[in-house]
Write a structure and sequence with these properties.
The chain is an alpha+beta fold. Helices cover about 15% and strands about 40% of the residues. The chain has an 8-stranded mixed β-sheet with strand order 2-3-4-1-5-8-7-6, with helices on one face.
């Protein structure tokens, strides 16, 4: 299992992540723009904005981020703790545990990029993203 911080921005994610890349002497592992996702996720005004990006730095550190246009961002709600589970069962267990007394913001389900993903605000107000790799078994 792995745990990372996930930052949300309201349109300046690319600028911020380039800044952090320079500060931490990092490198981009992934840059996905809204135009790279399903058509229903993109509008002309945001197609070149960041849907997801990851920079790596130091000894195994990663910083993940995106431009989030789903809700107004205020200091305090512009980050998530991101959990990458080892497998689907672990991911489901973690998601369900965090959901107890909390609120689902996205169900834990299959995603277009493969694997499963869901997000929740736990009973303490902490925002979590839980992902699990896709099922590699062939039926």
């Amino acid at each position: 299992m792995k745990c990372d911080v996930y930052l949300s921005f309201d349109g300046n994610c690319e600028e911020a992540m380039n800044f952090y890349k320079n500060v931490f002497d990092g490198e981009f592992l992934m840059v996905m723009r809204y135009k790279d996702g399903p058509p229903e996720y993109s509008k002309p005004e945001i197609e070149n904005k960041i849907m997801h990006t990851t920079i790596a730095f130091g000894n195994g550190c990663e910083l993940k981020a995106s431009d989030d246009f789903n809700m107004p961002l205020n200091k305090g709600n512009n980050f998530h703790v991101s959990i990458a589970a080892d497998d689907e069962a672990q991911g489901h267990s973690i998601y369900s545990g965090l959901l107890e007394g909390g609120k689902a913001t996205m169900p834990f389900e299959e995603m277009f990029w493969g694997g499963k993903f869901g997000s929740v605000i736990d009973k303490f107000g902490v925002q979590w993203m839980v992902s699990a790799p896709g099922d590699e078994a062939v039926s």
